[in-house]
Amino acid sequence: MRLDADNIEDFALGCAILSAGGGGDTAIGLAMARHAIESHGPVDVVAVADLGPDALVMPCGLIGSPTVAQERIWSGVEGGRLASAVARLHGAPVDVLMCYEIAGANGLLPVLWAARLGTPLLDADGMGRAFPEMQQQTMHVAGVAASPVVLTDGRDNDIVLHAADNPAAERLARSCTAALGGTCAGALYVMPGRVAQAAAITGSVSRAVAMGRAMRARRSGWPAALAEEAGGRVLIEGRIVELEWTGGAGFARGHAVVDGTLGRELRRLRLELQNEVLIALEDGEVIATVPDIIAVLGLVNGSPIGTERLQYGQRVGVVTLPAPEVWRSAEGLAVVGPRSFGYDLDYGGPGSAHAGP
Q1: How many domains does the chain have?
Q2: Domain match, 94 and 59 both
Q3: Start and end of every S-Me-THD-like C-terminal domain (predicted)?
Q4: Which CATH number does the domain housing residue 314 bear?
Q5: Is beta strand 253-262 parallel, antiparallel or unpaired with respect to 233-246?
Q6: Is the bond preceding 148 in cis, omega lying within 30 degrees of 0?
Q7: Containing structural domain, residue 260
Q8: Could you read off the pLDDT of 187-203 as tens digits, one per residue?
């Protein structure tokens, strides 16, 4: 498989869906990835099963504010600076790049860097969706160390962090992003192929391409098409009648209320927002929760809508998709379940993607 001019838009749309409303805007990332492919050629995508046991895998992406990242045009040299620093630290060249987050802009920037470097991209990632913190990756659950973490602003300012543990790496990296302009490129959880085969979520790139292709082939009925393609459920189709944001703890927090229908039934759905859409409630009853993916689609064109682009009066469809299996385990839920985001809730609900009919 390759990412090229014929499927990069499919991939970008799949990344936007998997973002659950977070991960940064894909528009600029898509433009840069497309330009890199046109200038340097397609990006080969390597299956995890085909990795050599000692191949050096570099998970990478953006760290910091998605809003700041939307206002920045990346030069493309960031990937080379990360790869050079990682090679020095590990005493071997980087063999393959990996999206640490197959969502939003973080799914697309590694494509830009892989094209410029002539390095393949692994068909895998560390989240299967978007999460706000670096320890919320399957590599952390598998016991892989995030350190040493390499950060760069692409302007000859590089930082290498050696942290006591992965949560400490997250805190230190967030602090450093302020000095690097509020957002930066980062490489972390660097690992050999034999570790990636057990620690990463496999098939992420091909899954995003297939999801985007299925959606772009439709001219209407996008929520139902997405649910069918990804094994999820439509929760509601309607209009945003309430939208409120509050500050706190470095993340955008708020809620949205959607009035609409499911089939012939009138519904009212409340979405709890914290960078991503994390919880869906109907009449006070929890019907879907993180780590399942809760995607909001515009009913005009089927495009996913990031949480920061939600607006009063928008016509939307809300779909929940099942999280990767690792996140539904006890170990995974301890890292990315509702309680890890401050909600006194258990995972699931009768309308969640994993629930029975």
Answers
A1: 2
A2: yes
A3: 165-347
A4: 2.40.390.10
A5: antiparallel
A6: yes
A7: 220-341
A8: 999 999 999 999 999 99
